[in-house]
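Re: the request from the purification team.
They wanted to know what the chain is likely to look like in 3D before they choose a buffer screen. I agreed to run a prediction and write the result into the notebook, where they can find it.
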Amino acid sequence: MSVPIAFDEEGFADALVSQERSPQIAEEDDIYAPLLGVWEVLAVDRLEDGSRYESRGEWYFARTLEGRAIQDVWIAPKRPRAAPTPGLPNRYGTTMRMFDRDSGQWRVVWFNPVSGAFNTLMGWGENGQIIHEGVRDGQRIRWIFVEIGTDRFHWVGESEQADGVWVREVEFFGERRR
């Protein structure tokens, strides 16, 4: 039996979203700040059969939890969404990023209830890029924002093969929503 629950959506959003960075995070460690906002994204997935699949998505980045975290919501294909096609990439998930003062890196957790994906990575800034590394099903993975501009970004997702070669699995090309 379902019991209706009173829920204050605005109260939840106010408790979650923060307008400012926490003073506990130094400006030089605030590597995700350029991504804050809303992005229109072209996703290019490389499928197992070698073909490519392109979809349009929307990616929202915000400060959360008193400015101590950066959270995103990544949706592709974008809304309104039709019924998904089996076997094709379908994303409606979120990433939480929390700065770890001890390591000087960001702890990153991505989960996508649509596909069941759940990844944990560590992230850091290096030479104008944001690099994330982790393990998925025993295989090393790497996600990199290789180009971050005021109005654009390029994101690359790769996996390391048994021979040590990194293979590109997906790319996202973002343009800031006006």
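For the purification team: Residues 9-176 form a domain with the Lipocalin fold (CATH 2.40.128.20).
Please add any questions underneath this entry.
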